[in-house]
Design brief:
- With 674 residues, this protein is of the alpha+beta class.
- The chain is 31% helix and 27% strand.
- The strands form nine sheets. Strands 13, 14, 15, 20, 23, 24, 31, 34 and 35 form a nine-stranded mixed sheet that branches. A six-stranded mixed sheet has the order 3-2-1-4-11-12.
- The chain is globular and about 80 Å long.
- It comes from Nonomuraea marmarensis.
- InterPro entries: ATPase_NBD (IPR043129), Hydant_A_N (IPR008040), Hydantoinase_A (IPR002821), Oxoprolinase-like (IPR045079).
- This is Hydantoinase/oxoprolinase family protein.
Length: 674
């Protein structure tokens, strides 16, 4: 066994990266995604880099099965079991609204209608002490209804189970005894052992809603790989940027909700090790969507909670902002104006230039008409694009708008670029982050085609295009660590803090994290644990997570002053102000276990191929420019724009006035004239 393989299944293409452990060579390829049976696209892509799956020593992949089920509202039918008197917690939700001044704002419809919520008798107090024993017969009634009415999942969320899970544990035992393995049983304290009843209920419901879809997919893909001779466990990317094996992912399917897009962020983290800048804006433009994430000081920007499709989720999640803007985004008219996306032509039929029956103009068709794509060597020669079909699609739309076709094609790209630049502002400027202080790391099949133009609009002077940008998310998965996140409720005011007790709880969490890594097959010498505290000022509702790296031990006298100062600094960074004299409270302990694997290193440029450079006319800013088209593997020295650089998985567009070089790590660095 000598190959480490990662795979990213996108809406249009399935990308694969293979690292040869003997030679250090990295190869990448892709195949069209096959929506009817994703495994077919997976094996088609895999067969282009590894001939014998038995030679694979490590395999990881990202999946969007759970996210797609949520977006398309095609998840499981869920029965929710709540505490007596708490039936309406999930329906009422929160009184606040995400978009206060949006007159058309509507809260997302609950995934579980009120008639599918049942109550269980029994009650704990806020300390987790039992007030009323669990009414087991009410749990059995819920099980009978789930069986008789064909529910696929049951979510259990009982009051104060984060403080004492005994009632939920017993309810789970009864439900599994009555329902067997045919119905997924989700216990809220296992999903999120955290306070805030509605958010914990929402998290449990989301796991129950998406879990059966994810479990079926993972079981099928693992079985298919075993049939092909894969002899090692399949690993899956988590929303937190860490890896877990399939058996754990099937037990905690919610963790995979953002599995696919997060791989690119972890690639950005890995790339930051080789760059002078440790801060990066990662942009992933595929065929369907455009994802933005941040790397700050060499670490992924991770939140302890998130809102996905308007539903709160209590779990560590890489902060991603996604919009419907990709190479397959369809251009159309609305009220006499040009619109682009979010609807996508997808993999089938795809853009008109794919020659699969698509007739509507897309961003990719616009780039073809503008000359910014090599139609004879698209995706490394795997596809030959139909230039005439692209021209017809653009001309048809241009006639509707009474535009010149070439001007319309550039307008389509400009509209898409403006939408993507605004998506970056949403994650940076709107949170007090200056994008000009970051490098723009561009990847995805279409990311490098638009990156320099997006950077120019944002005032960013440096664009980094890694090797194999079209498969960069898959490469990022190879660079990620196994990760397990553990939490423990810990409500203490600063006056009541017992440093020795806090240290003891952290030691227990650390051992639990190390044991979890051991169960994932991580050798002892490759395990480490990091701790953090969720804190707030007295009277506040929400918390900030403060890392304990390089901090005094909780039992030391200096600890309280230091951690309060760190909280004030974090509060200023987040909200623009702090109240250092105000007392703080501790709400939760967090321990994260990491299991590392040998790094692949930056992918080299490889051996120059036989593609000869040539010159073609390309449209920039309304003018025609004679532009060289070159293979990336043959680049040497500085390259002044305009230029088109093609490689196996993507195309990089270098506009006029920009300067590109290849650094020692094989990264293509584009200096943008801002």
């Amino acid at each position: 066994m000598s190959y480490r393989v990662a795979m990213d299944i996108g809406g249009t293409f399935t990308d694969v990266v293979c690292y040869d452990e003997r030679t250090g060579a990295v190869t990448a390829s892709k195949a069209p995604t096959t929506p009817g049976d994703l495994a077919e696209g997976v094996f088609a892509a895999l067969g282009r880099v590894v001939h014998d799956p038995a030679a694979i020593s490590f395999f990881v992949h990202g999946t969007t099965q759970g996210l797609n089920a949520l977006l398309e509202r095609k998840g499981a039918r869920v029965l929710l079991l709540a505490s007596r008197g708490g039936r309406d917690v999930y329906q009422i939700a929160r009184g606040n609204r995400d978009r206060m001044f949006d007159l058309r704002y509507r809260k997302p419809a609950p995934l579980v209608p009120r008639q599918d919520v049942m109550e269980a008798g029994g009650r704990l107090d806020y300390r987790g002490q039992e007030l009323v024993p669990l009414d087991e017969e009410s749990v059995r009634r819920a099980a009978r209804r789930a069986r008789e009415e064909g529910f696929e999942a049951v979510a259990v969320c009982l009051l104060f189970s984060y403080a004492n899970p005994a009632h939920e544990v017993r309810a789970g035992e009864i439900l599994r005894e009555e329902l067997g393995d045919d119905v997924l049983v989700v216990l809220s304290h296992e999903v999120a052992r955290e306070w805030r009843e509605y958010e914990r209920t929402s998290s449990a419901v989301l796991e129950a809603y998406t879990g059966p879809v994810v479990r079926r997919y993972l079981a099928r893909i693992e079985r298919r790989f075993a049939e092909r001779g894969l002899a090692v466990p399949v690993h899956v990317m988590q929303s937190s940027g860490g890896l877990v094996n399939v058996s754990y992912a099937m037990r905690r399917p919610l963790q995979t909700l953002l599995s696919g897009p997060v791989g690119g962020t972890m690639g950005g983290v890995a790339a930051s090790r080789f760059m002078s800048s440790k801060n990066a804006i990662c942009i992933d433009m595929g065929g369907t969507s455009f994802d933005v994430s941040l790397v700050v000081n060499g670490r992924p920007d991770v939140s302890a909670e998130a809102h996905i499709e308007g539903y709160p989720v209590l779990m560590p999640v890489v902060n991603l902002h996604t919009i419907g803007a990709g190479g397959g985004s369809i251009a159309y008219t609305e009220a006499g104006a040009l619109r682009v996306g979010p609807e996508s032509a997808g993999a089938v039929p795809g853009p008109a230039c794919y020659g699969r029956g698509g007739t509507r103009a897309t961003v990719t068709d616009a780039n073809v008409v503008l000359g910014r794509v090599d139609p004879a060597w698209f995706a490394g020669g795997l596809m030959t694009l139909d230039v005439e079909a692209a021209g017809t699609a653009i001309a048809t739309l241009a006639e509707e708008l009474d535009y010149d076709p070439l001007n319309l094609a550039e307008g389509i790209c400009d509209v898409a670029n403006a939408k993507m630049a605004q998506a970056i502002r949403t994650l940076t400027v709107e949170h007090g982050v200056e994008p000009r202080e970051f490098a723009l790391v561009a990847f995805g099949g279409a990311g490098a085609m638009h990156a320099a133009l997006i950077a120019r609009e944002l005032g960013i002077s440096k664009v980094v295009v890694p090797r194999f940008p079209g498969a960069f998310s898959a490469w990022g998965m190879l660079e990620a660590d196994v990760r397990r996140d553990l939490t423990h409720p810990y409500f203490r005011s600063q006056d009541a803090l017992d440093g020795g007790d806090m240290s003891g709880n952290l030691v227990t969490l650390e051992q639990d994290a190390l044991d979890a890594l051991s169960s994932q097959g991580v050798p002892e010498e490759r395990r480490r644990v990091e701790h953090a505290l969720d804190m707030r000022y007295e009277g506040q509702d929400y918390t900030l997570t403060i890392p304990l790296r390089d901090c005094f031990e909780p039992a030391e006298p200096e600890f309280l002053a230091e951690i309060a100062a760190r909280y004030a600094e974090a509060h200023t960074g987040r909200y623009g102000h702090a109240t250092p004299e105000a007392p703080v409270e501790f709400v939760r302990l967090r321990s994260t276990g990491f299991g590392s694997f040998p790094r692949t290193g930056a992918a080299s440029a490889g051996v120059p191929d036989d593609g000869a450079p040539y010159v073609r006319d390309v449209i920039f800013d309304g003018g025609v420019h004679s532009t060289p088209v070159l293979r990336r593997s043959s680049l040497d020295g500085e390259l002044a724009g305009p230029a088109i650089v093609v490689e196996e998985t993507a195309t990089t567009v270098i506009p006029p006035g920009c300067l590109a070089t290849v650094d020692d790590n094989g990264f293509l660095i584009v200096k943008v004239n801002t």
